Amino acid sequence: MLPIEVNSAEFTSIAKNEYGEVVESKISDTFSELILSHELFSAKLTLHGGHVLNWQPKGHDEVFWMSKKAQLENGKAIRGGIPICWPWFGPYNDAGNHGFARTSLWQLGSIDINSAGIKVELVLEGEKRSESWTHKFKVTQILMFSNSFSQQLEIENLSNQDFQFSNALHSYFSVSSPENIAIPDLNSAYFDDKIKSIQGCTPSDVFNCVGPIDKIYHHNSSMTMFDKGWKRAIEIKKSNSTQWVLWNPGKDIAAGMSDIHQQGEDEFVCLEAANTNWVIVPKGEKVSLSQEIQVYKL
Ligand SMILES: O=P(O)(O)OC[C@H]1O[C@H](O)[C@H](O)[C@@H](O)[C@@H]1O
Hints:
By secondary structure, the chain is mostly beta strands. It has 1 helix and 21 strands. The strands form 3 sheets. Strands 6, 11, 12, 14, 15, 16, 19 and 20 form an 8-stranded antiparallel sheet that branches. It has an 8-stranded antiparallel sheet with strand order 7-8-9-10-21-18-17-13, with no helix packed on it. The chain has a 5-stranded antiparallel sheet with strand order 1-2-3-4-5, with no helix packed on it.
């Protein structure tokens, strides 16, 4: 019997029709990305971390920033795009920052290409993934790429007791400069300043997003980020997330981060739809949260 022919090319088409195509590109022996093409947008994602790497709606520039020094390797967190921070946000016990979802290999559930865009479903499930968080769970991530973008997480508790999680959709938005960014919707929100370790700060105007800035805003509706340099606005709607996290490391902290290229901190602002406090999911139940992003020219 002849051996089955394996497609040894670096690029392998995994779904295609008259509206678009999804191609797998092997970056290394252990890391590959999925390249999505469609007349309304282009985008890239990877199963490592269930991570959206970029999305560019037609007629606009890239929406998400990616570090030129991002570690595209099995088990590493990727600096840029949208890391999924889950089942915890920030540090937790000795288990490191932001949970295991962003460093785990997700499974490809389904791909649907149609005239409106490309829908991709990714799944992460398991039990005892971390000594600090041992519950049995299933997370389904539903991504809809089009001239807008939406990302939904369905978090299912499959264990025989209630569990809790915190999370963030840690979007790195590409900007002309953090100096040019205004987010007027934040002006009226109470916030915790993580750098100064002060909680419950009274609302104050956000004139720019120059780092170091690391704030948790208690605000559960939409945000619009205005970039006066690139004359574009990014609107982010979210559901079931009670906070927004605003982060940029600034020059000195970024200089100590091996996966940010020189002056990379001048190219992005993170605005993260988050639940920084624990959310309880009763046993056998499901919680869903999402964000939806739209880009406008000013
Ligand atoms: O370096 P990472 O683990 O990816 O975390 C990057 C940043 O994520 C969030 O925005 C947190 O609020 C910051 O405190 C943290 O520094």
